[in-house]
């Protein structure tokens, strides 16, 4: 080392040793991608305010060459009111950096779901839906000192009408090694609630049976006041591989106060 004006120079820094891991969220897109949306959420306990920052959208796939996108933000189950971003003109990669506030009590917070709808405005001022993001808040640790920055791929809106009594979406997987059957209850839609009231809780009961004999059941949280609840809850059942041919699952959609849906 050598001495220069009261300071010791003991070596140089190799910048390659201090590089941050590359953020691939803007470069790695799945096949068939229709876009990706970034946002952040934070909850203020004292004022009971949910702070949502709409950051950006990338790789939009509009119906025409040019794209003028904007975003509507809902806090479900309320689908009548929404907050809306400014329109960004002639870009497939809009940068929004806009902040929005929803008033919601801490008791109700984890039963709510954020819904982002991304639209394109054409020259005739018609709105075309490009994709959506559905984000339940129940699995998030929302505190004032914990601002979560999140990205999600856009999904197409399911335009197929629900069946007479509604539909439920779920997935199944089986682990041979652990002998475990995993059920993910994703969402339901178009449910015919017996009582149209915000106080009506809707939940899904998952029952495992063998030879039509009841083995075990588990249920989701009850979500209030919506015919289109989003659950994203995972349940596991022990089931030997030799029992799978005679095992069956029953998924029932129930209302927590008055009977079944």
From TrEMBL:
A GO CC term assigned to this protein in UniProt: exocytic vesicle
**TM regions (residue ranges):** none
Entry-linked SMART domains: C2 (SM00239)
Which CDD domains does the annotation name? C2A_Synaptotagmin-15-17
Annotated gene: Syt15
| Entry's family note | Belongs to the synaptotagmin family.
What is one process in the GO biological process aspect for this record? calcium-ion regulated exocytosis
- Protein name in the entry: SYT15 protein
Pfam families in the cross-refs: C2
Origin species? Spizella passerina (Chipping sparrow)
List the SUPFAM superfamilies: C2 domain (Calcium/lipid-binding domain, CaLB)
- Domain C2, residue spans: 33-152, 164-261
Question: Which InterPro entries does the annotation name?
Answer: C2_dom, C2_domain_sf, Synaptotagmin-15/17_C2A
């Amino acid at each position: 080392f050598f001495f220069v004006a009261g300071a010791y120079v003991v070596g140089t820094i190799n910048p390659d040793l201090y590089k941050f891991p590359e953020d691939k969220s803007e470069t790695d897109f799945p096949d068939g991608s229709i876009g990706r949306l970034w946002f952040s959420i934070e909850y203020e306990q004292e004022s009971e305010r949910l702070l949502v920052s709409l950051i950006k959208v990338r790789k939009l796939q509009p119906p025409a060459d040019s794209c003028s996108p904007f975003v509507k933000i809902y806090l479900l189950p309320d689908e009548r009111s929404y907050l809306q971003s400014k329109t960004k003109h002639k870009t497939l990669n809009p940068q929004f950096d806009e902040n929005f506030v929803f008033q919601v009590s801490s008791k109700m917070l984890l039963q709510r779901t954020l819904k982002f709808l991304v639209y394109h405005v054409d020259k005739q001022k018609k709105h075309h839906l490009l994709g959506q993001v559905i984000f339940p808040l129940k699995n998030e640790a929302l505190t004032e000192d914990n601002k979560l920055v999140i990205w999600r791929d856009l999904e197409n809106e399911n335009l197929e009408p629900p069946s007479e009594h509604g539909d439920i979406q779920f997935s199944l997987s089986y682990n041979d090694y652990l002998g475990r059957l995993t059920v993910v209850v994703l969402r339901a839609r178009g449910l015919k609630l017996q009582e149209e009231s915000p106080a009506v809780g809707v939940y899904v009961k998952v029952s495992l049976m063998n030879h039509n004999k009841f083995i075990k059941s588990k249920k989701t949280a009850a979500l209030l006041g919506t015919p289109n609840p989003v659950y994203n809850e995972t349940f596991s059942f022990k089931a030997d591989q030799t029992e799978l041919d005679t095992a069956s699952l029953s998924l029932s959609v129930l209302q927590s106060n008055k009977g079944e849906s």
